[in-house]
Specification:
GO terms for molecular function: hydrolase activity. By secondary structure, the chain is of the alpha/beta class. The protein has two domains: 68 residues, no CATH class; 115 residues, Zincin-like (2-Layer Sandwich). The chain is 37% helix and 26% strand. The chain is built from six helices and eleven strands. A four-stranded mixed sheet has the order 1-2-4-3. Helix 3 crosses helix 4 and helix 4 packs across helix 5. It is globular, with a radius of gyration of 20 Å. 22% of the residues are buried.
Length: 237
């Protein structure tokens, strides 16, 4: 019997089927020729254990799907001319001499620092990540305030993190966590993540009632989900 599930990763969501068999003694993951991820387990293994098994194998699954799709995760070099996403728009990186700082100027994302440090990869990367996190904190909190009023919901603490396998989460105490890299997505797609996690304050699952509720405040949520599946791998720093 097949059960459709979704594994959230930093690069894209992975749909997979769990197939239970009375004769099987071990768990295994198979990626078919058309890219379908199939998890085969014995009947006595619970869905929770199967999902935990898949989660622990997520890096292997991603690497195999990358090969299958012939899609490589780009590596950042932090040199002038490199392209960066911010709120869905592509900006060209410009390294310039001046006081230390990062910002947006016209169509450029600039890093300003002393000329002696132009080739300091770690410094430039840390400066950019810090700027993105600050922007994420500001905009995510603004959108949370906006949608929580519309949805008439109250949430707990808000955490902006560098999550490796998901874009957002809602704890049992209604504390919300967001991957700061969603600030690279178009604002409408970012809003979907906000609505999604706020909806978990009421619905602690992904059943039909949850998605119906999400759709009330984000009619194009399916388009946004698809966007993250197809473009999530490009949201890297």
């Amino acid at each position: 019997m097949k059960k459709q599930n979704i594994l959230k990763t930093e690069y894209f969501d992975i749909e997979y089927n769990i197939i239970k068999s009375p004769k099987r003694k071990t768990m295994s993951i198979i990626i078919s020729e058309d890219g379908e991820v199939i998890v085969r387990i014995p009947n006595w293994i619970s869905d929770y254990e199967a999902k935990k098994f898949v989660f622990n194998k997520r890096e292997w699954i991603v690497s195999k799907l990358m090969i299958f799709k012939k899609q490589k995760i780009p590596e950042r070099k932090y040199v002038s001319g490199e392209k960066f996403l911010y709120l869905g728009k592509t900006y060209t990186l410009m390294i310039m001499e001046g006081n230390y700082g990062v910002g947006i100027l016209d169509d450029f994302l600039y890093i300003s620092l002393k000329k002696d440090f132009f080739d300091n990869y770690d410094l430039k990367r840390n400066m950019v990540i810090k700027w993105y996190k600050n922007q994420a904190k500001k905009i995510i909190n603004e959108r949370l305030e906006y949608y929580s009023k519309i949805m008439k919901l109250q949430y707990g603490k808000v955490f902006i993190r560098d999550q490796k396998t998901r874009w957002g989460s809602c704890s049992g105490k209604n504390n919300l966590s967001f991957n700061f890299k969603i600030i690279m997505a178009p604002k409408r797609k970012l809003d979907y993540i906000i609505v999604h996690e706020l909806a978990h304050i009421i619905y602690k699952h992904h059943q039909k009632s949850f998605w119906n509720y999400v759709e009330k405040y984000c009619e194009d949520y399916q388009e946004s989900r698809k966007w993250f599946r197809e473009n999530g791998r490009y949201l890297i720093l």
